[in-house]
Amino acid sequence: MKGSAQRQLHTTATWFRLPFGSIAFRINLAICLLLSTLLFNGCLTRKNALPSDRTVKSNPYKNRKPARGTILTDASTSPRDVRASGKGLLEGYAEVLGVNTNELQNQALYTYIDDWMGTPHRLGGTDRRGIDCSAFVGMVMHDIYGKPIPRVSREMAQHIKRKYERQLREGDLVFFSFGRKDIDHVGIYLHNNKFVHVSTSKGVIISDLHDAWYYKYFTRAGSPK
């Protein structure tokens, strides 16, 4: 320990004896500034950079599936905590979608959606532990409509018969570009501007196409070929 301290003092003394402005002086000064920067910034992470009175709140829906039969929605025009099970399944979804029950003819579709409702998002996932948007859409298209479609959302968008928004019908696909360039998200249109998709923060959920967050990035729509 004593030898280490002596070597440190010797090095420091040598540094101060360097001629001011010399190349060696400049090199040593640059090294010291670099080390100082690393020292002060090394522990400044996104987490501990928050003020002491701020905490990161976890999303209540993150990695949690709601009680079976609860229809999860973030649509501004839909009621919350609507429960639908058994004979009341279509009635519940009609309430969330804002339509008459007799407009929902495909009970198999809503039973399928209800079975996956609230399943968390997981990139590349295809099961109850987590699923991504294109996997969910692909499964619905295959299992309910008998239509095989590409696995990736941007490739799905190349295999549709494009439609105007006013022409959309239940089972059509809606595409988004949250990255502001390529299509990177897809959902299934239901009724009354509502669509079902896999939100990265809330999992399988029903949203409103006309809500500002989604409409801003809405890019394309159409029926699978």
List the helices and strands and how they pair.
Layout (H helix, E strand, L loop, with lengths): L1 H15 L6 H19 L28 E2 L10 E2 L5 H9 L9 H10 L9 E2 L2 E2 L1 H13 L7 H4 L3 E3 L10 E4 L8 E5 L4 E6 L3 E6 L3 H4 L2 E7 L1
Antiparallel strand pairs: 1-2, 3-4, 5-10, 6-7, 6-10, 7-8, 8-9
Can you walk through the features of this model?
With 225 residues, this protein is of the alpha+beta class. It has 2 domains: 2-41; 70-224, endopeptidase domain like (from Nostoc punctiforme) (endopeptidase fold (from Nostoc punctiforme)), CATH 3.90.1720.10. It has helices spanning 2-16, 23-41, 89-97, 107-116, 133-145, 153-156, 212-215; strands spanning 70-71, 82-83, 126-127, 130-131, 160-162, 173-176, 185-189, 194-199, 203-208, 218-224. The protein has a 6-stranded antiparallel sheet with strand order 5-10-6-7-8-9. Strands 1-2 form a two-stranded antiparallel ribbon. A hairpin with a 4-residue loop joins strand 7 and strand 8. The longest helix is centred in the first third of the chain and has 19 residues, at 23-41. The relative contact order is 0.13. Residues 1-16 and 32-66 have low confidence and may be disordered.
Trace the largest sheet across and list its strands: 5-10-6-7-8-9
- Average pLDDT: 79
CATH superfamily label of the largest domain:
endopeptidase domain like (from Nostoc punctiforme)
Q: The CATH topology of the largest domain is what?
A: endopeptidase fold (from Nostoc punctiforme)
Overall strand count? 10
Count structural domains.
2
Class based on secondary structure composition and strand pairing: alpha+beta
**Counting H and I runs of at least 4 residues, what is the number of helices?**
7
Portion in beta strands: 15-25%
Structural shape: globular
* Overall radius of gyration: 28 Å
Named CATH architecture of the largest domain: Alpha-Beta Complex
First-last Cα distance: 76 Å
The CATH first-level class of the largest domain comes to: Alpha Beta
Oligomer: single chain
Largest sheet, described in full? 6 strands, antiparallel
The ordered string of helix (H) and strand (E) elements is HHEEHHEEHHEEEEEHE
Low-confidence stretches: 1-16, 32-66
Question: What percent of residues adopt helix (DSSP H or I)?
Answer: 25-40%
